[in-house]
Specification:
By secondary structure, the chain is α/β, with parallel strands linked by helices. It has 2 domains: 9-196, Rossmann fold (3-Layer(aba) Sandwich); 201-251. Helix content is 54%, strand content 11%. It contains 11 helices and 5 strands, in the order αβαβααααβαβαβααα. Helix 3 (70-83) packs parallel to helix 6 (124-135), helix 5 crosses helix 7 and helix 9 crosses helix 10 (221-233). The protein is elongated, with a radius of gyration of 22 Å.
């Protein structure tokens, strides 16, 4: 299997550079719907698995929601790392009864910080369980495909989880995947920000030209260009058209 996603060579190389030395890293993979951000993470997960990483968040997605709390995260990690599977959506979405939600606008920054510290003192045992699990599980890739935690969990991730993972002896790569506007508040804390814009149409053209040359008759330059332009607008067409063309090579004259 070709590692580099078609039309994304520059972005792929940027992400590979962040993973190459097996140090802990925090990555944002941003893009609008249809940009292929989830597919890009799936390819990163496949590459990581072959390279000896354990992957959380693929193939089943891991989503942080406003109701997610530390106990949910602890249960999820243990289910995945010790049992190998879990009902992710049910686990991540479970809300702790009576869990206090903090309104940053209402309490102000100083009040929010005080509440965060007080919350952390109460949750220290849960935090210790989460960090112990992470630090004792070998090299990890954790992909969060949907970032909408409540302010307290966001505060914990940025002030506790990210700094601690950078100090870990094992490699922990945190990858946050969402729309640019949904994930902007994480940007100051990451090592790599990769935003998926328009596909590189020249790469797609070369791909279609290569597989189209074996059709009978071969694709014309105008056909290649037209298919590539359509696929650049809808990334699902890259795989769909590739499958059709490969089927056509086996089926003989395309008429």
């Amino acid at each position: 299997m070709q590692d580099t996603p078609i039309g994304r060579k520059r972005e792929w190389n940027e992400l590979m550079a962040a993973m190459r030395d097996r140090r802990s890293a925090v990555i944002i993979l941003a893009g609008q719907p249809g940009s292929g951000r989830t597919y890009m993470f799936s390819r990163l997960a496949e590459h990581g698995t072959r390279s000896g990483y354990r992957v959380i968040g693929w193939p089943e997605p891991l989503i942080l929601e406003p109701t997610t709390n530390l106990n949910d995260i602890d249960r999820l990690l243990n289910a995945l790392l010790t049992e190998g599977s879990a009902d992710l959506q049910g686990t991540v979405s479970a809300s702790a009864a009576g869990e206090e939600q903090t309104d940053l606008v209402a309490v102000g920054v100083k009040g929010f910080m005080k509440q965060g510290v007080r919350w952390l003192q109460q949750k220290r045992e849960e935090e210790d369980r989460v960090l112990t699990t992470l630090f004792s599980s070998g090299d990890l890739i954790i992909g969060v495909d949907g970032y909408a935690p409540n302010p307290i969990i966001h505060w914990w991730i940025t002030t506790r989880l990210i700094p601690r993972t950078r100090e870990a002896d094992n490699s922990i790569i945190l990858i946050f995947i969402d729309r640019p506007e949904s994930i902007a508040r994480l940007r100051p804390f990451v090592d790599v920000y990769c935003e998926l814009g328009r596909f590189n149409i020249e790469e797609i053209e070369r791909h279609f030209e290569h597989i189209g040359a074996e059709l009978r008759p071969p694709l014309t330059k105008e056909e290649v260009r037209g298919y590539a332009q359509a696929a650049a607008e809808d990334s699902s067409l890259i795989s769909a058209l590739g499958t059709v063309f490969k089927w056509g090579r086996k089926g003989g004259d395309r008429g």
